[in-house]
Amino acid sequence: MKGPEMNPSRRRVLAGSALALAPALLPAPALAAGPKRDVAVLGGGMSGLAVAQELVERGFNVSVYERKALGGKARSLPVPGTGTGGRLPLPGEHGFRFFPGFYRHVTDTMRRIPFPGNAGGVRDNLVDISAGRLSRSGGRADLGVPDLKGGGGIDVDWLRETFTGLLQQVTALPAAEIGFFVNRYIVYVTSSEDRRYGQWENVSWWNFIRAEGKSAEYQAIVAKFLTRGLVAVKEEVASTRTVGNMGQAFLLSAAGLGTDGDAGLARMLNAPTNEAWIDPWTRHLRELGVNFHLGQTVEALDVKNGRIDAARTVDAAGKRHRIDADWFVCAVPPNRAVDLWSREVLAHAPELEGTRHLHTDWMNGIQFYLRETPRGLGELLSFMDSPWQLTAILQSSIWNRDFTRDYGDGNVADCLSLDISDWDAPGILYGRPAKQCSPAEVAKECWAQMKAHLEDTGASVLPDGVLHSWFLDPAITWHPGLGRNTNDEPLTVNTIGTWTRRPRARTGIPNLFVAGDYVQTNTDLATMESANESARAAANALLEAADSPAAPAETWKLYQPPELDALKKLDAQRYKAGRPHLFDV
């Protein structure tokens, strides 16, 4: 068996020798010092909670410092003043979230969070999305998407047939353009890792699929929908490597490959996120001994003798605090982490400078509370031609809750939860982007864009009278005097050429580690999965630095079909020789 005891690190050997000689060399008080076990986790979002769990399970004393609310962008939150008659407030959220079948790290963590009545813990609160609706505007019929679960092997011909058939169902693209895109897709999935990192990382998705000059349908579906609608990145600047990896992972999980067992294409929680996941998680962490300090905004990291000596925070009352610990894990988003990278920090960890060159964008949600459940919408909806790239979940089809009984004032039967993925495109009502619309205008615009898709063939799907109320993510703040919104919780996006600028979990400062969806991970997309994977990488780096005998946290790579290995090996040779991909014609 291979493990820490069988393969001691050089540091451990030296440490053991020093301890053996200590009685003769060191004063007695020095021998009383115990192992360094105190960890300060700066940030209580997905990565912060995940690293806290990995470390507290391995015997560390963990304290988490969070400025806002535990769970970060994944949390749900009560809509103030909406619960009456003993019912809970209406559930709001930053935006609905789903769990693709290829998620492994998040679901592994969920299994280790107890939940009453669930043998598999919180993981058992995930349910498969079995149906969806791809809605088109302009008088075109909408398309229903069946359950795509499958199994078995895979080869290039299977990929070609499956992807071509999917595109033919989605839209009436010109046949030549379908064939062209399928060829581009085959080029990517048979590209070697060297080419993916060396070439496709530095090419935008728009240029890779050569969208310029193609039909409006090609640009709307293949370019925009597959980026903004699915992974919330802009096609003109998104890295082809990121979009290609996610496209491959989605397709493979639809075929039952590369999942955590019984997962399908995607899953959803069966209740509001805090009820089904975040609250049981934080309760479990408290029982394990994690200390949470809310309302603490990290302001600075003090460096002394090449290590982090302390972190400094300020609370909601403006009082400043000093945080002392042996180890520090920075788990705040990149737009906030850069404020902590002082000259002293960068002098010892210059690789963190690249964080300043990363990009964020907006993907925030709005919930529409309905007096009755619309018929025939399915579970997951995509409004493919909407200027704001809207996607939605009809929550009654997923949740095991009775809205009228459990939430609000007794008059809400359902919730249509939307994600707005494009805040920069002009809308259809006011001609302005969402960033320049008041909350009421955002709501009216989203409602109009949905109706333009669902009712463009004459059917009445969302009559105005069905709307009870709405709730916009409170991270969005409207400034009337400026005529624009600000966003307190933007999303990291992977733009071309930024892989090498993203930090790894281990830094040049021995007791400082970084976790977050912007850290280099195999998942490589700003998601809960990437945040969790980065947390495990940070925990493992800390374990090694602390010479801990504990087993490292398990990590997984995205599934790569072995049937494509021969083509990838050939491409690696061609790339090394400076030649294009064999199918790149």
UniProtKB/TrEMBL annotation:
<dbReference type="InterPro" id="IPR006311">
    <property type="entry name" value="TAT_signal"/>
</dbReference>
<dbReference type="InterPro" id="IPR050464">
    <property type="entry name" value="Zeta_carotene_desat/Oxidored"/>
</dbReference>
<dbReference type="InterPro" id="IPR002937">
    <property type="entry name" value="Amino_oxidase"/>
</dbReference>
<dbReference type="InterPro" id="IPR036188">
    <property type="entry name" value="FAD/NAD-bd_sf"/>
</dbReference>
<feature type="signal peptide">
    <location>
        <begin position="1"/>
        <end position="32"/>
    </location>
</feature>
<dbReference type="Pfam" id="PF01593">
    <property type="entry name" value="Amino_oxidase"/>
</dbReference>
<protein>
    <submittedName>
        <fullName>FAD-dependent oxidoreductase</fullName>
    </submittedName>
</protein>
<dbReference type="Pfam" id="PF13450">
    <property type="entry name" value="NAD_binding_8"/>
</dbReference>
<keyword id="KW-0732">Signal</keyword>
<feature type="domain" description="Amine oxidase">
    <location>
        <begin position="286"/>
        <end position="543"/>
    </location>
</feature>
